[in-house]
Amino acid sequence: MYLAHCLLLLLAGLLVLSQGQLHPELHGQRHTHRPHQEAPGTAEGSPSLKVTAGNTAFALRFYHLLASQPYGDNIFFSPLSISSAYAMLSLGVRAHSQTQILEGLGFNLTEVSESDIHRGFRNLLHALHLPGDRLEIRVGSALFLRPELPLLPSFLNDSATFYESKLFRMGFEDTVGTSKFINDHVRAETRGKIVDLVSTLSPDTVMVLVNFMYFKALWEKPFIPSMTALHDFYVDEGTTVKVPMMLQDTQHHWYFHDRYLPCSVLRMDYKGNATALFILPNRGKMEQVEEVLTPEMITRWNKLLRKRYFYRKLKLYIPKFSISGSYKLDQILPRLGITDLFSQRADLSGITEQLNLQVSKSFHKAILEVDEVGTQAAVATGGFVTFWSRHNHEVLRFNRPFLVGIFSTNTQSILFLGKVVNPTKP
After folding, report:
1. CA–CA dist 20, 323 (Å, integer)
2. Which of 167, 204, 257, 351 places its Cα 20 to 30 Å from the Cα of 70?
3. pLDDT tens for each residue of 46-85
4. Does the pLDDT of residue 367 top 70, yes or no?
């Protein structure tokens, strides 16, 4: 008789673009600052760049799966949190099960080796962790497992070396106490923003893998809070809600209306090595824009937004909002080809040889908060762009559903991706 012991994967992503100061005391807890050090991930041929293409492909494939669901829900997730957690798990997966994970994460194993993938993630995570006084990023993993569960030294060492994972031994017989301990750990690592990631644990759970990502940044050009006012946001043809709309009317921004696609694209920079893309489809054209949301299109938009011609004065309206996304990855990832892992065919013998491990459930939760000062990981009258030729002043109103992506510029990685359908829904 086949007996499977449960392994639970919990992933949390938090993007915080919010009012207030960063926490400089957090920087350097894991790394010593070395002046004039070039951040890994920035140089040509850097190991992290070998995983960039795969990570981007996975982010957009995952987004398309979520967007294919019935229209109406906000979408927000951290593809890097998911990718790094499953890449770490692949260290302990063998045979076809491992191939499924790595290919499902977007990697072409004929072009990039397994060792290059893990070295790439190590380099990427190290680059994100480099201390700075303008940007706070915390990415980490933790293993919670029974005291008697013997882990293979290779998995234990590699998960710590490549993914900086921490290990906690605890008894899962006390499911309530263990759930609280895990939730308290995630709450502390995400500055109190991700709470109750796990509600109940199955008594046969022997191991829990948690991955978290916390991002807090300040706008390079902050909004003035006194200029924020309630405006209409057109969710769909029959639904209009009131939202606090932030306003900038004296700043220059990188933006353009795509001449080939029915959308406008805006780049908003943060202080530090991060930037945001806001994509506003024309009225009723969201699906048409989503269909061409590919790595090539993202690259094209980023290149265009570096041309000086598209740096112009703009009257800009963006809602102040907080949204979240919660997803059952064990139901989504099989649609990307990762099937064995959640079945009795899973071969996790690289983690431990003494038990038949099977991933029972896998959750991902992400929160986005956006306000006047920054981001804390957080039918338009007049059309998508209104031209006031008499004043030579362009107006861009994000007062209907739009897309948002948050990028690490030095690692060329998508940190967060989402769609704001109704900013009044948390």
Report:
1. 19
2. 257
3. 778 889 999 999 999 999 999 998 767 899 999 999 999 8
4. yes
DSSP, residue by residue, 88-112: HHHTT--HHHHHHHHHHTT--TTTS
5-22 pLDDT per residue, tens: 456 666 765 554 433 333
Tokens of 17: 């673009």
Asked whether the beta carbons of 270 and 374 are under 8 A apart, the reply is yes
Q: Hey, CA dihedral for 70, 71, 72, 74, is it positive or negative? A: positive
Domains annotated for the chain, with CATH where assigned, are 5-218+322-370 (3.30.497.10), 225-319+379-420 (2.30.39.10)
Strand partners, 395: 315, 386
User: Would you state the torsion angle of the CA atoms of residues 377, 60, 302, 14, taken in this order, to the nearest 10 degrees?
Assistant: 0
Q: What residue type is assigned to position 318 of the chain?
A: I
Nearest in space to 360 (alpha carbons), one of 375, 373, 376, 344: 344
Which pLDDT band, with edges at 50, 70 and 90, does 276 fall under? Answer: very high
Per-residue pLDDT for 86 more than 70? yes
Which among 38, 212, 223, 18 has a CA at the least distance from the CA of 123?
38
